[in-house]
């Protein structure tokens, strides 16, 4: 009896010491993770893009509400996918399980080639702008200084995510509470002014003459970008405690909350600012604060900067898990499926993103980055939910702990494909480049996945480099299966 007890204790100790990603994300961190990743720079910058492309106040508010509903529909589809397939990796895993390895690899390829660098660049540039601009107001801030501060923000987030999963999770919870406080601070004065009768900017809100159908998809892209991030919890499924309960619950709670807050924030903006003033502002929240919160105006840029930092942290926490799973499945070099032996973080996957983000941050233009990244992102999300419908049809008896109504799944998939198709007409240059870059992954797929076709000398050199990197970074393969 004593020997058996000692053997059990030894097994537990081995499991504790094993190199693997642990289940440490409960319901509150999961909700904070989604809200903290969704609410970033988008709500403080995207209102300009939505209004510019929708043409009127009323239609822009409708776009914000519809984007929230559409994002909730997508999040519910991903709740089903996340509870059906218990692996981390999000889009990549679902495409692999439902449509096969090539679409999954292409999603992995574009995520790390330009989607994640583009999105992280956008958020970090917003962080830099909100930190720097108050010191130069009313003059324009130097672009070089904004980019330097943006790089420092990215560096901090990468360091936190390399250091500890626990630290990254706690940072996310803290920053989420700060950013929700920032939204409340904007909503309250706007709602008070509205009740006092300040409604002139909402009169003739739907000016039909200003609506241009070719630009409407770009309005939705800007709105959907602000809601982007509802799928990041699916990237870390293997680290969520009781995922069958916590994933759907966290997704529903967070997306309903975000939609309500976003619409109210935009109502507050239009209460205090005319459409013309909003279009002239590159930092909408700061302009609003100067009008409505004179005493607290200086705190708004700080709160928005911290909000951007939270979104960056969420992205760097989630996205490397996709690369980690892709490498584990043999679709990426094995070094990226390794974990730091003491920190228990996917160190190589996190570090790979850093130079890519810095490069795009230095060379990119903020509004082009959204349109550039959105085509591939939404195309593959639509493919993932289409794959879910096909998988349902092929395997009707497979247990699904959470099942989204069919009408919601079909509506979301059709709308996504429609927006993606229309964007080819609205912005053929950026969407065409995005499409072309996606297709460059096809030859890479056959070179990396089918490595036996490469010359023997190349494979030996590649494997030697991987071993040297493994020793340098102090990383090892996962020792315990977590799915």
- State the separation between the terminal residues, measured CA to CA: 32 Å
**CATH topology category name:** Amino acid/polyamine transporter I
Mean pLDDT across residues? 82
Number of beta-strand segments: 2
The name of the CATH superfamily reads: Amino acid/polyamine transporter I
Please identify, by name, the CATH architecture.
Up-down Bundle
Largest sheet composition: 2 strands, antiparallel
Pairing-aware structural class of the strands and helices? mainly alpha
Give, in order, the helices and strands: HHHHHHHHHHHHHEHHHHHHE
For the record, the count of structural domains works out to 1
Tally of individual helices: 19
Main location: membrane
Pfam families: AA_permease_2
InterPro entries: AA/rel_permease1, AminoAcid_Transporter
GO cellular component, one term: membrane
Quick overview of this protein structure:
The chain is an all-alpha fold and 483 residues long. It has 19 helices and 2 strands.
Structural notes for this entry:
74% of the residues lie in helices and 1% in strands. The protein is an all-alpha fold and 483 residues long. The longest helix has 36 residues, at 101-136. The model has no long low-confidence stretch (mean pLDDT 82).
Layout of SSEs?
Elements: H1 2-17, H2 27-38, H3 42-54, H4 57-84, H5 91-98, H6 101-136, H7 143-163, H8 165-195, H9 216-227, H10 243-272, H11 275-280, H12 284-292, H13 299-328, E1 338-340, H14 347-363, H15 366-394, H16 406-426, H17 428-439, H18 441-448, H19 456-473, E2 475-477
Antiparallel strand pairs: 1-2
Helix pairs in contact: 2-8, 2-10, 2-13, 3-4, 3-9, 4-9, 4-10, 4-16, 5-6, 5-15, 6-7, 6-13, 6-14, 6-15, 7-13, 7-14, 8-10, 8-13, 9-16, 15-16, 15-17, 16-17
């Amino acid at each position: 009896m004593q020997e058996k007890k000692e053997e059990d204790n030894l097994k537990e100790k081995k499991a504790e010491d094993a190199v693997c990603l642990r289940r440490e994300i409960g319901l509150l961190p999961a909700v904070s993770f989604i809200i903290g990743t969704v609410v970033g720079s988008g709500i403080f910058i995207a209102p300009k893009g939505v209004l510019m492309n929708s043409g009127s106040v009323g239609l822009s508010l409708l776009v914000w509400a519809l984007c929230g509903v559409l994002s909730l529909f997508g999040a519910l589809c991903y709740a089903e996918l996340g509870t059906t397939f218990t692996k981390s990796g999000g889009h990549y895993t679902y495409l692999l399980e439902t449509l096969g390895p090539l679409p999954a690899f292409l999603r992995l390829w574009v995520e790390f080639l330009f989607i994640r660098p583009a999105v992280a660049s956008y958020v970090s540039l917003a962080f830099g702008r909100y930190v720097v601009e108050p010191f130069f107001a009313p003059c324009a801030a130097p672009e070089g200084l904004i980019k330097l501060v943006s790089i420092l923000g990215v560096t901090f987030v990468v360091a936190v995510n390399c250091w500890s999963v626990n630290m990254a999770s706690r940072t996310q919870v803290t920053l989420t509470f700060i950013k929700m406080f920032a939204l409340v601070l904007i909503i309250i004065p706007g709602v008070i002014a509205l009740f006092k009768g300040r409604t002139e900017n909402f009169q003739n809100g739907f000016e039909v003459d200003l609506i241009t159908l070719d630009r409407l998809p770009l309005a939705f892209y800007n709105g959907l970008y602000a809601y982007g991030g509802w799928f990041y919890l699916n990237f870390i499924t293997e680290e969520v405690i009781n995922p069958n309960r916590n994933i759907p619950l966290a997704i529903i709670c967070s997306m309903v909350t975000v939609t309500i807050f976003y619409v109210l924030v935009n109502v507050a903006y239009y209460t205090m600012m005319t459409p013309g003033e909003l279009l002239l502002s590159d930092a909408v929240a700061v302009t609003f604060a100067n009008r409505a919160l004179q005493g607290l105006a200086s705190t708004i840029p700080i709160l928005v900067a911290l909000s951007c930092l939270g979104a960056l942290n969420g992205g760097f926490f989630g996205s490397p898990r996709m690369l980690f799973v892709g490498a584990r499945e043999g679709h990426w070099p094995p070094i990226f499926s390794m974990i730091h032996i003491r920190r228990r973080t996917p160190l190589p996957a996190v570090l790979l993103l850093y130079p890519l983000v810095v490069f795009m941050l230095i060379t990119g233009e903020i509004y082009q980055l959204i349109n550039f990244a959105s085509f591939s992102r939404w195309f593959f999300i639509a493919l993932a939910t289409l794959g879910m419908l096909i998988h349902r049809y092929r395997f009707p008896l497979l247990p699904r702990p959470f099942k989204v109504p069919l009408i919601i799944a079909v509506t979301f998939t059709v709308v996504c494909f429609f927006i993606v198709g229309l964007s080819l007409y609205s912005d053929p240059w950026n969407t065409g480049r995005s499409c072309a870059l996606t297709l460059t992954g096809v030859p890479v797929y056959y070179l990396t996945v089918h490595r036996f076709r490469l010359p023997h000398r190349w494979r030996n050199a590649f494997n030697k480099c991987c071993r040297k990197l493994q020793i340098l970074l102090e990383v090892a393969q996962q020792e315990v299966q977590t799915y």
